[in-house]
Design brief:
The relative contact order is 0.19. The radius of gyration is 17 Å and the shape is globular. The protein has two domains: about 20-90, ATP-grasp fold, A domain (Dna Ligase, domain 1), CATH 3.30.1490.20; about 95-205, ATP-grasp fold, B domain (D-amino Acid Aminotransferase, Chain A, domain 1, 2-Layer Sandwich). Strands 5, 6, 7, 8, 9 and 10 form a six-stranded antiparallel β-sheet that branches. The mean pLDDT is about 95. Helices cover about 35% and strands about 30% of the residues. The protein is built from seven helices and ten strands. The protein has about 210 residues and is of the alpha+beta class. It has helices at about 5-15, 30-40, 70-80, 120-125, 135-145, 150, 165-180; strands spanning about 25, 45-50, 60-65, 85-90, 95-105, 110-115, 125-130, 185-195, 195-200, 205.
Length: about 210
């Protein structure tokens, strides 16, 4: 499988009304810094490459960069990573982390997966599945099925995340998966969600 181009990936998200954090890729540190100042610090930097699938494993993600000095140092380091094609600059989101994905099964077609992101998905395997198409009603059931639903309801922070925004993303992902048949796999990890909404912070489309 090949990783789809970043700009095409963004267009697909927009086409199916899946919100994402303000993000752009740069080769020039100066232009990247101008973009960071425009969207406002703190920002996240990630190495951009169609050959690198797991950025964190190689130190390819720098979070919480609060000023231009930190930004410049991190940008130069990321651009030196083997196979780097540029550096992705992103507004830093705050909230709970969700993982959403799709795999195209030979028998059932596109199957969606939903769960808590971060350490929860790796350690607890707390996830739910649905075969597409997924309606808003089924999307809500997917969300409520996981053991970590209480976290989304505000068990840790006292603030309930925007469940309707998550439902909307799941429904959008279902439509995308059914209509864009060349897409074999989708990884939205993490999706950042809080009381105001939900946004894909990292998105990969495989063809």
């Amino acid at each position: 499988m090949q990783l789809l181009d970043f700009q095409i990936s963004k267009k697909l998200l927009s086409k199916y009304k899946i919100p994402f954090l303000e993000t752009e890729v740069f080769e020039s540190e100066k232009k990247a810094r101008q973009f960071a100042k425009k969207i406002g610090f703190p920002v996240v930097l990630k190495v951009s490459s169609r050959k690198i699938f797991h950025r964190t494993d190689i130190g390819g993600v720098k979070v919480g960069l609060g000023n231009e000095k930190e930004f410049k140092t991190a940008f130069v380091k990321l651009l030196r990573i083997k196979d780097a094609e540029g550096v992705l600059v992103q507004k830093m989101g705050q909230g709970e982390q969700i993982v959403l994905g799709m795999k195209r099964d030979g028998q059932f077609g596109p199957v969606l997966m939903f769960g808590l992101g971060g350490i929860f998905v790796e350690i607890l395997k707390d996830i739910s599945f649905r075969v597409c198409p997924v309606s808003a009603k089924e999307a809500l059931k997917m969300i409520k099925e996981i053991k970590g639903y209480s976290i989304l309801k505000g068990a840790r922070t006292g603030k309930e995340v925007n469940i309707n925004a998550l439902v909307s993303i799941i429904v959008g992902l279902s439509k995308l998966s059914l209509k864009e048949k060349s897409i074999k796999e989708i990884d939205l990890n993490p999706v950042i969600t809080n009381e105001k909404g939900a946004w894909a912070a990292d998105f990969k489309f495989f063809v």
